[in-house]
């Protein structure tokens, strides 16, 4: 049997240590995720870490460190597809980015242990857990700070709902009012809502605005003939 010919005890024990270390470190990362009821919990992070360690260790065993580096590059790209599976977009909100980043880090931990760099893998595990736990109070404190529209960077849109026959005039008036307030328009889109109304969406070039100024512009736009609704909104850029 080829197994008997190729089996070597000490390299096998080295693989056992690498996979066991990946299992333990992946468990530490996954336990925190499981506690917080994230999509990718304990088992997912363990499997990612162990899988990455197995691929890197296999490359090391078959062709040495040069081939292991190539395997690591494939692990990095491959884990991207897995991470994309936990990212969900709900309206203007995107969920799962932190979970995907944690999976990426679990793969890095596994790659470290697979390359026999267990101490480095343990260090990375500590940083990952610290990022997901110790930084939470800081994140919560930042989120409680009132947003200053003049210093934040976002995409701003002004929306008008008008009668279809008055849409061209309303579009010109929208651009004129915004430019008069020193908010140049980058793009204007028209979205027909059946035969009764048209929504005009003007995207501003500015990434920071004065909320009071935009409120005043919107108030003037509401008084235009045929306008049934006028409002502005912002969304984060990244």
Structure notes:
It is a multi-pass membrane protein. It comes from Lysobacter gummosus. Pfam families: MgtC, MgtC_SapB_C. Its main location: membrane. The protein starts with a helix and ends with a strand. The model has no long low-confidence stretch (mean pLDDT 84). With 238 residues, the chain is of the alpha+beta class. The strands form two sheets. A four-stranded antiparallel beta sheet has the order 4-5-3-6, with helices on one face. The chain has a two-stranded antiparallel sheet with strand order 1-2. It folds into two domains: 142 residues, no CATH class; 83 residues, Alpha-Beta Plaits (2-Layer Sandwich). The longest helix has 43 residues. 60% of the residues lie in helices and 18% in strands. The radius of gyration is 27 Å and the shape is elongated. It has eight helices and six strands.
Features:
238 residues; alpha+beta; Alpha-Beta Plaits; 2 domains; two-stranded antiparallel sheet; 8 helices; 6 strands; membrane; transmembrane helix
Low-confidence stretches: none
Output mean pLDDT.
84
Amount of beta strand: 15-25%
Would you list the SSEs in sequence order as H and E? Answer: HHHEEHHHEHEEHE
Structural class label = alpha+beta
Q: Mind summarizing the main beta sheet?
A: 4 strands, antiparallel
As a whole number of angstroms, the C-alpha radius of gyration is 27 Å
Strand line-up in the sheet with most strands: 4-5-3-6
Q: How many individual helices?
A: 8
The portion of residues assigned to helices is: 55-70%
Number of domains: 2
State the distance separating the first and last CA atoms.
56 Å
- C-alpha geometry: elongated
The beta-strand count equals 6
